[in-house]
Amino acid sequence: MNKTAQILLVLFLSFSISCVPARKLEELQVSYDNLKSDYDEMKILKEFCDTSLLDLKSSYAFAEKEYSEAMRKCDEQKILCEKTQASYEILNKNYKNLVNSNENTKKDLRYELKRLDNQLEEKRGELFAKEAKLEAQEAKAENLKKQLDITANNLKERERRVNELEANLAAQEKAVTELKDKLTESLIGYKNSGISVVQKEGKIYVSLDNSLLFASGKTDIDWKGKTALLKVAESLKDLDDFDIMVEGHTDNQPMNSNTIKDNWDLSVLRATSVVRYLTTEGKMDPLKIIPSGRSKYVPLNEAQTKEAYAQNRRIEIILTPKLDQLMDILK
Questions:
Q1: Integer Cα distance of 226 and 232 in angstroms
Q2: Which residues of the chain have pLDDT under 70?
Q3: Which residue from 123, 194, 198, 315 could staple onto 209, CB 3.0 to 4.6 Å apart?
Q4: 194 with 156, same domain?
């Protein structure tokens, strides 16, 4: 209560006391005391209220400050939210565009994937085909390698056989040359008597003129021919590596004889006479010598003269190296 109110109360009480009796005064005193008690309580309550008001004002000021700060932050958040909302709308728009683009991309990717799958399938088919072809080529190459190995071995074997054959041919050629030299030496005394020894085509030809062996149209051997044939037999009777062919040759003049039919007959009979003499008197093995007649069909000189006719009438002893060993090598 303020001072003015207190003064008025004291004046009121003083006036009341002067105007009322004692009993009344007592009642007033009681009322006063009650009022004073109430006043004290009200004063205490007022002080409490003042204190509470100060506290409330302080709390209000703090709350108002916090409210302002909260409003500021709210404004900031609102601005941020608006920015975020704008960003969200942009993002949402971009997202939709991206989704649409993604759908298109998916379609393109699905198309591209399908195309790549087809291409891959084609490539896989090509790869399988190439692998199959490669396997076939490898198998073929393996077979070729085997064939090459076989061929190489065959070539080695053939080379060995060729070398062996060449060695045998060289040995035969040497044997032929040696035999030819031996015959030439043994018949050197008959060189000018119608005997010649010639080596050609790997064979030896001992040619005897008919004038040395036979009279005209005859098949009996003259003594001069027998002597020459004994020389030949001496050189050939131990010969094992040669085939011996005795060929009779005539001229082309017709035969005029009752006992001999033609030149075929004459050529064979003369060759047989020579073989018979070589095997009987010359002691040659009959299994090693073969007679044959060639008639007029292998002339040395085709001229139609007496000299040509005389040259064509002959006996040829043909010595041919046996080919048994060579054939064995070639098998």
A1: 10
A2: 1-21, 189-192, 324-331
A3: 194
A4: no
Task: Give me the percent of the chain exceeding a pLDDT of 70.
Answer: 90
CA-CA distance, 144 to 188, in Å (whole number)? 61
Residues 194, 195, 201, 203, CA torsion sign:
positive
Burial of 326 (0-12, 13-18, 19+ CB in 10 A): middle
Q: Is 241 exposed, middle or buried (0-12, 13-18, 19+ CB in 10 A)?
A: middle
- The domain that holds 258 is classified in CATH as 3.30.1330.60
State residue 20's pLDDT score. 55
Structure tokens at 192: 């000018």
What is the model's pLDDT at position 256? 82
- Quote the distance between the C-alpha of residue 124 and its chain's center: 20
d(CA 36, CA 32): 6
Q: Which of 305, 323, 321 is nearest to 313 (CA)?
A: 305
**61 to 67, 75, 189, 251: CA distances (angstroms):** 9, 20, 170, 168
Q: What is the DSSP letter of 85?
A: H
Cα angle 166-167-168, degrees, rounded to a multiple of 5:
90
- pLDDT one-digit tens code per residue, 44-74: 887 888 888 888 888 888 888 888 888 888 7
* Maximum CA extent, the chain: 231
Phi first, then psi, for residue 137 (nearest 5°) are -65, -40
* Residue 315 belongs to a domain: yes
Instruction: Give the count of alpha carbons within 13 A of 25, CB side only.
Output: 8
Structural domain harbouring 96: 74-174
Query: Taking the model in full, what pTM does it have?
Result: 0.52
Please indicate, yes or no, whether residues 252 and 291 belong to a single structural domain of this protein: yes
Tokens of 237: 């009777």
